[in-house]
Amino acid sequence: MPSRPLILGISGASGMIYAVRALKHLLSTDYTIDLVASRASQQVWQQEHGTPMPTNIDQQQDWWRKQADVAAAGKLRCHAWGDVGASIASGSYRARGMIVMPCSMSTVGKLAAGLSSDLLERAADVQVKEGRPLVVVPRETPFSLIHLRNLSALAEAGVRIVPAIPAWYHQPQTIDDLVDFVVARALDQLAIDCVPLRRWKEK
Fold this sequence. Notes:
six-stranded parallel beta sheet, single chain, 15% strand, 7 helices, Rossmann fold, alpha/beta
């Protein structure tokens, strides 16, 4: 298990299942996770799942563990989206990197412009300025020219772009199989291999 924590940002894009599956695999493998969900993610969660996401940060840890179906493994710290004074907002906090999954085009645009209006964006900006790995998983279609230019700006700054595009060569049987492919490829960018996945040409 790595000593440094991984930051998981959940922005207001459709595809909350990607965050849940990532959290499940990471905690089950005893990773330490700092989680921050944006304000907009609360509305998207309600729309996709029909249930509210707790706004009280003290309730979120148990709630996220319940969503991921991981009771005790790993270590999870939840941060309020507006707490720009949290540990993960500082470059002196030695995280191994950050993944934003799913990542909205609003978040992509703000990161590309170097703007930080909440803790998620600030933490992501810190990874870029500190030269640490930042992975974004955009979940949008089609991409406009503005979206593409913003994504290109992030890529030029060293950010890894992993669109939520599943494959079929691993012969997925369930929605979770399709989701896990994207989660695995995103975590690959951080040299994390904790998702059981039949890779290309593996028997």
